[in-house]
Design a protein that fits this description.
With 134 residues, this protein is mostly helical. The chain contains 3 helices and no strands. Helix 1 packs antiparallel against helix 2 and helix 1 packs parallel to helix 3. It is elongated and about 65 Å long.
Amino acid sequence: MFIGDLDKVTSLLLSLSGRLLRVESALDRLDTESSHHERLPLLEKKKQLLVQLAEAQELKEHVDRREQAVGSVLARCLTPEQLRDYSHFVKMKAALLVEQRQLEDKIRLGEEQLRGLRESLGLVVGTSLGYGHY
């Protein structure tokens, strides 16, 4: 149960961090002449995400305390080698989730760049050769 909660909290933190980054990027892309109407929803979303991120951090702290409690119980039941294996597993589980999210983000970015490149090439080719999008 602890490992499942660790997965969920880690995924939640990564998701909220990614969403916050996208909102901050959108705010950065707005020029100084952007209307209050455009900026306000993004600022509200940022505020909401910061609150949610703080709550998720509290959940992570709770899971960390549970990790200590589970480790104490397991220390009485497992050999030192088994306990090291368990500790390594817990650390790697979280690290691999972070790495998986980073790879997914890179794939998504690459797909967006490829789509943009295809669209720009389609427009250039379509304009110069008289063809439409391919």
